[in-house]
Amino acid sequence: MTQEKTEQDQTRFPVPQTLAQSARCNADDYQRLYRASIDDPDGFWREQGQRLQWETPYTQVKNTCFDGDVSIKWFEDGTLNASVNCIDRHLPEKANDIALIWEGDNPAYHHAITYGQLHDHVCRFANVLKNMGVKKGDRVTIYMPMIPETAYAMLACARIGAVHSVVFAGFSAEALANRIKDCDSQWAITADEGVRAGKSIPLKNNLDEAARSCPGLKAVLAVRHTGATVSWVDGRDYWYHEAALKVDSRCEPVVMNAEDPLFILYTSGSTGKPKGVLHTTGGYLLWASITHDYVFDYQPGEIYWCAADVGWVTGHSYIIYGPLANGATSLMFEGVPTWPDVDRFWQIINKHKVNIFYTAPTALRALMREGDAPVERHDLSSLRILGSVGEPINPEAWLWYHRVVGKGRCPIVDTWWQTETGGMMITPLPGATDLKPGSATRPFFGVKPALVDAEGQIIEGAGAGNLVITDSWPGQARTLYGDHERFIQTYFSAYPGTYFTGDGCKRDADGYYWITGRVDDVINVSGHRMGTAEVESALVAHHLVAEAAVVGFPHDVKGQGIYCYVTLNAGLEPTEDLARELRQWVRKDIGPIATPDHIHFTPSLPKTRSGKIMRRILRKIAENDFSNLGDTSTLADPSVVDSLIEGRQIR
Ligand code: 6R9
């Protein structure tokens, strides 16, 4: 690819000629399809819905309303089963094709699972769940490492109509317990242990600890992974490998309505309580499938690797549902990018001849710091398309990814989306979209983004504002589990009649979108979404802490780091030991991803006369930017600011 400057002096990478010809969608196709999807959503999605296999064909397509009670329904009279779409329908032609490649944390371990084998595993798993008493509509919590059984567990739930709630294996027992209770989950699936970077994670023991505060939990199914000895509750706990021997490898799928729930996935919002984002069967699966197909330009036989964890939405949509619905080969990696060495990603790409690779900017920034040599040790010529997700990618990391990993040949699809959107929303298509480093470029089919100013006025043309989506798309979340009111409040009340994303965004004169980051109290640490309120409530739960305020600050590798202002109870002196203890405390309460980077003890916090903490000021101080503190005259005690600045400078 050659570089050229546009009139805005932005670096632009045109679509490579070969891709413009060979990709399933070129620039003209994109224009035509996008137009059609906006002019006639009903007609467009009526046709696209045919990508899936329906038991009862739908006659209704779009029935959505963003006003009042907010109701979102797609294909509402159609019926289907997600596991059939991901497995059974491929069997006539692809029973011997590889569905999943599993690469262990230990580089000596890997194996492949064909679509035929996947069918048998999932059916067995489904039969085990049925024997335990799991029924359609029941919520099943999955607290698992990155092993094939996790995919079987999710698809087994889908097969019998149970609603899975995957909880990231890095979450603490406490965080897990909250999520089990929130969705009233009576069933849980876990493994004896997980392994990452050679270290064991005691998943079963964590689950046992969580279970102590979850009286509603009836049964636990444990997969044996490392063989470690674990605690056991007779009558409640079952080993999967024992139960699987007693069941058949066929299981009739349960026919689901398109709007029956497929899964719940908890995500952080502006308040302390995680939100159970609910996705349904038809629209979600269609969205995961069509975006995976177009955005990665997936060609039959290609090896596709999404390096996310299934505990996050990226893993749901782009390790499991999207690729498998498309009959693709999806690689699942148990480990971390830097173990046993910093070249692990590149080693895996070479080992499995990966064609399409999808990862997060935080991983790229960490690997970039190791220089080019670890990448250059490996033959990466199999790579064709690169992807990025989870946070804004800084142009420096983009250019490194493009030049060093992709050797200048591979387009980078910078995909903007959210747990709530189900799949990609603003993204390049490799054969259609010229790239600008740092821009997620243009909307996918059916997506109507808009920018609004503080007054809620729509901004036309180039400009910056808050990003909203003005009409529904099939992959959209339908509600927050058990709390539709909060769903309306969170997403549809700021700018009535539109879906508010929580992100700030710029649009340039070419109509390209540039996501600038969250505008609410959500921070993005290494691509993990976290509510500052969650960290605050963990801190104030400590018996020595009187008050806490948490903000994000720019971090070279993580994107954002966690900066905590802490006021201790009267009479207590801050110490390094206490700072360490608080860091551990938060880590134990939420999980390692929430470990604070800075604890800044302060005798008081900057508050307005009405008692509101002025986070704007705290953010600026954490950023080490003392020049633009703005108006501090409304503070009850303006001198607090000076003492905070002093506290910051000595760190
Ligand atoms: C898929 C996922 C969503 C938030 C989102 C935004 C940020 C995701 C991005 C991006 C800039 C991208 N985000 N992708 N920002 N460019 N390509 O990450 O879902 O965990 O729900 O996070 O992540 O701020 O609002 P989720």
From TrEMBL:
Residues of the signal peptide: none
A Gene Ontology BP annotation from the UniProt entry: acetyl-CoA biosynthetic process from acetate
Residues that, per the record, bind Mg(2+): 540, 542, 545
Co-factor requirement: Mg(2+)
Broad EC category: ligase
PROSITE patterns reported for this sequence: AMP_BINDING
Annotated positions of the N6-acetyllysine modification: 612
EC number: 6.2.1.1
Binding annotation for ATP: 390-392, 414-419, 503, 518, 529
Cited SUPFAM superfamilies: Acetyl-CoA synthetase-like
Domain Acetyl-coenzyme A synthetase N-terminal: 30-86
Keywords per UniProt: Acetylation, ATP-binding, Ligase, Magnesium, Metal-binding, Nucleotide-binding
Xref: NCBIfam families: Ac_CoA_lig_AcsA (TIGR02188), PRK00174.1 (NF001208)
Designated name of the protein: Acetyl-coenzyme A synthetase
Organism expressing this protein natively: Iodidimonas nitroreducens
